[in-house]
Design a protein that fits this description.
This protein has twelve helices and 23 strands. By secondary structure, it is of the alpha+beta class.
Length: 444
């Protein structure tokens, strides 16, 4: 298990822990409000042993995640962060959400374009909570502002919230609290979180989002859970196409930690059955992200495509959609998205250059992949062909091309160029890109 970080919807830093192989299918585990990512560590270890990559996330203002200056801790804010995190993963993940984290997952998946997630596991989640339950849970949240004399006092406070359920025992439930210099235990998160989460006012929005979810989904409930009834869970399950409901006997609110073996067994059974490790199939009309995952299995080199503006300013962007077309005549191509800010410049330019990057130029790739007007700042370049395009000095190869033809290619334009000059250094090791990540190959 090692620590990583993501950028949230407000530019806030979200802390996370990850275990499992980088290339393994990802499972993003989201805690409920008031808990931290550590609640998932037992499940994460089980997922790693099963060949999955587990990513345990702290919500904004919780655990090691940054507080937000404006104190925004509503359901829509957690959902926005979740969408931002999912967008930063190299491929689609299955999301496992507990309580409020599960509600955020419903909003994120149901209100986004298809393909944001590959599956959903909703633990102790309901869209409809009555006023008495809401007040009891709200009282529990307000206790986050208190100080406790010992871990046992903390457990007793947790038990008081759900008096008819089994007494919680796992130390993972205490992970959001830290012992102070005075020996008392206090919640380590942002105090503004307390009272900011509305359990009742979002019911219609949650149900509407749930009805739009089309990915494999299961709802897991502790059979003795006092706050999340079987009937309300079944109602929510009925809104999500093809979903299933599983109950864990003898478990209440804290099945993730206190009934870990039973919970992990249900989780892994769902993943193996509905989101298997075996090959995934894309059919025409399926969500585009699934196709992107398939195309990402093909490794490519990394290039920066450049040209000169009519005003004589260098323009460039990172691309891995480069290919050789013909040796006689010497033709190459690259593709540019029709939504690109550089589209007009490249589609009207008389020529362009392809700069093939080496392993030491990953920062250059990152720079030219970001939308800004200062990509060439600090990057040495020169024009080596009269009327030509910028060569990035030190690249593994640079090819100056005259625009030969432009073809429509769906949501991209295919730009074909005739090579006029090619400078290259074959002894440099190439920078590669596959499955959403950079790779490096060293030749001996």
């Amino acid at each position: 298990m090692h620590n990583i970080a993501f950028t949230g919807a407000a530019g806030n830093v979200l802390a996370a822990s990850r275990c499992g192989g980088d290339d393994a299918p990802a499972v993003l585990l989201v805690p409920t409000v008031g808990q931290t990512r550590h609640i998932w560590h037992g499940a994460a270890e089980a997922l790693e042993r099963a060949g999955r990559q587990a990513i345990c996330l702290d919500l904004r203002g919780h655990g090691d995640s940054a507080a937000v200056p404006d104190g925004r801790y509503a359901l829509e804010d957690y959902a926005a962060d979740l969408k931002a995190v999912l967008g930063q993963l190299p491929s689609r993940a299955t999301v496992v959400g507990l309580g409020g984290g599960g509600l955020a997952a419903i909003i994120a998946a149901g209100e986004s374009t298809p393909g944001l997630v590959s599956g959903l596991v909703l633990v102790g989640v309901t869209a409809r909570v009555d006023a008495a339950v809401s007040e009891r849970i709200g009282g529990s949240a307000r206790r986050l502002a208190e100080a406790f004399d010992s871990p046992d006092a903390l457990r007793a406070a947790l038990a008081d919230v759900h008096p008819g359920e089994p007494t919680p025992t796992s130390d993972l439930l205490l992970s959001g609290f830290k012992e102070g210099a005075d020996g008392r235990w206090r919640w380590a998160g942002d105090p503004s979180v307390v009272g900011a989460f509305d359990l009742i006012g979002n019911s219609a929005r949650i149900e509407a989002a749930a009805a739009r979810i089309k990915v494999p989904t299961t709802l897991i409930r502790g059979a003795l859970n006092e706050s999340v009834s079987y009937e309300s869970t079944l109602r929510l399950s009925g809104l999500i196409y093809g979903s299933e409901l599983k109950e864990i006997a003898g478990g209440g609110h804290h099945i993730v930690a206190d009934q870990a073996d039973a919970f992990n067994a249900v989780l892994l059974e769902f993943l193996e059955d509905r989101v298997p490790l075996s090959p995934i199939s894309y059919q025409s009309g399926d969500d585009p992200r699934l196709l992107r995952d398939a195309l990402g299995c093909f490794g490519t080199g990394v290039t920066v495509v450049t040209t000169m503006s009519p005003q004589g300013e260098p323009i460039g962007f990172t691309a891995n959609s480069f290919a050789s077309v013909s040796l006689d005549p010497p033709l190459v191509l690259f593709c540019i998205a029709k939504r690109s800010a550089n589209l007009e410049q490249f589609s009207s330019a008389p020529g362009f250059a392809i700069n093939v990057l080496h392993i030491g130029q990953q920062p250059t790739s990152d720079r030219f992949a970001r939308p800004n007007d200062s990509r060439f700042d600090g990057v040495p370049w020169e024009v080596r062909v009269p009327g030509g395009s910028p060569f990035l000095i030190g690249s593994r190869a640079s090819l100056d091309c005259r625009t030969h033809a432009i073809h429509d290619g769906g949501d991209h334009l295919i730009v074909v160029g005739e090579v006029r000059q090619a400078d290259f250094e074959p002894h440099r090791d190439p920078l590669l890109y596959i499955q959403g990540k950079y790779r490096r190959v060293h030749f001996t």
